[in-house]
Amino acid sequence: MDPVRNPYAPGAGRRPSALVGRDDVIDDWNISLQRAERGKTDQPMILYGLRGVGKTVLLSRLRRDAEDRDWLTVQVEAGSGRGLRDMVGEGLYGPLTDLARPSAGARLLRALKTALSFKASYDTSGTWNFGIDLSEASGGAADSGVLLTDLGKVVRDVSLAAGDDGVGLALLIDEAQDLTAEEITTLAAIMQSAATDDLPVLFALAGLPSLPQTLAEAKSYSERFRYSVIEKLDESAAHRAIEEPAGDEGVEWEAEALEHVIAASGRYPYFIQQFGQETWNAADGTSIELRDARVGVASGQGQLDNGFFRARWDRTTTAEKQYLRAMCPEGDGGVGSGEVANRLQRAIGSLGPARANLIHKGLIYAPDHGIVAFTVPGMAGFIARQLD
After folding, report:
1. Helices marked H in 253-378 — which ranges?
2. What is the number of other CB atoms lying within 10 angstroms of the CB of residue 239?
3. Same domain, 252 and 205
4. Based on the domain organization, do 262 and 368 belong to the same domain?
5. What's the rounded Cα separation, in Å, for the pair 343 and 322?
6. Fewest C-beta in 10 Å: which of 93, 137, 201, 312?
7. Could you list the pLDDT tens digit for every one of the 388 residues in the chain?
């Protein structure tokens, strides 16, 4: 097949040709946008699941839906080396610049001045210029150095300014489990306060399966948030994810080829895109056959091993690799920490640092007390393919 026409797009956060199986979350978000525009703010949306299920893709879709309604949007990724204050501040500059105008009302002028003070709270040497005289405007004072005070003030003032235009502010945070304890606690408090005051602001956080527990440990009222577990696709959605992009290019999948790719992918969106792309490139007829799928899956597995899996494996120390290997007999299922210690012939307490580091690196999580599991589907299989 012509690789230029290849409709599959593997890669973290890359938008697939067919975003399927996520209609419930998308519909809930769009209802929330419309309710907020009518003065009724819904609870924050928390999306959590394993790697490879498409959380980043879904979060970006929510952002685009908000932008389509002319909302101010800020989408950031935690764990990128910058703090929440810096990420939100820089994310606000572009939308606010687009909103600034000579005829700005009092609330917008206030929001712009507050944003300038917020900028000064983390970058005293940086300068912003909205092209409007703000000397007589109220606002500012978002530079106290207290994150809860400063971030809360900028969220309030910016969202109220957007509300004057009949829209709101959408703040979306990916890899939210990588926020610091202070940032999580602050964000949880601001989200709760915004909902209580019906501010025209919506929050969506995405992260690993540990995210709900992280939020619960930060604030007791985190049970008031809306939690959606993002899982692998069901059979119908997996078929659509593969067939629809090819159909748009006038190409059909034979049934056996389709089932081979679905089975190999485990119905995980990332793997579907990888195997779909390689299978397309292997095919040379007018339809995709089983032999093409077999070549595509083999080639795609090599691509995943050299990229998706290895990028994580290479970040671990020798001790951490030993810990991961001891988890492998259970595959993607969870295993008791005590059993891992038994296999390594170590005292369970001595493995605490390796376990903690692997959790911090986002490679494993604790689905239950005393249990650890991989955050990356297929990781056990990859480790089994590595030489000792």
Report:
1. 255-265, 269-282, 290-304, 310-313, 318-327, 337-344, 352-360
2. 18
3. no
4. no
5. 10
6. 93
7. 899 999 999 988 888 989 999 999 999 999 999 999 999 999 999 999 999 999 999 999 999 999 999 999 999 999 888 999 999 999 999 999 988 887 888 999 999 999 999 999 998 887 788 888 888 889 889 999 999 999 999 999 999 999 999 999 999 999 999 999 999 999 999 998 998 899 999 999 999 999 998 888 876 666 778 999 999 999 999 999 999 999 999 999 999 999 999 999 999 999 999 999 999 999 998 899 999 999 999 999 999 999 999 999 999 999 999 999 999 998 888 999 999 999 999 999 999 999 999 999 999 999 989 999 999 999 999 999 987 6
Residues in the chain: 388
| Domain total of the chain | 3
Which of 265, 204, 199 minimizes the C-alpha distance to 234?
265
In a domain, 11, yes or no: no
For residue 222, what is the domain's CATH number? 3.40.50.300
Position 122, amino acid: Y
Q: Choose one of 249, 279, 312: the last residue of a domain.
A: 312
Single pTM value for the model: 0.93
- What tokens does 192 get? 């709760």
Whether 268 and 222 map to the same domain: the answer is no
Residues 176, 222, single domain; the answer is: yes
**335 strand-pairing partners:** 372
HSE, CB side, 13 Å, CA atoms: give it for residue 49.
Answer: 20
Beta-bridged to residue 373, according to DSSP, are 365
CATH number at residue 285: 1.10.8
Same-domain status, 133 and 210? yes
CA diameter of the chain: 72
Same domain as 146, residue 41: yes
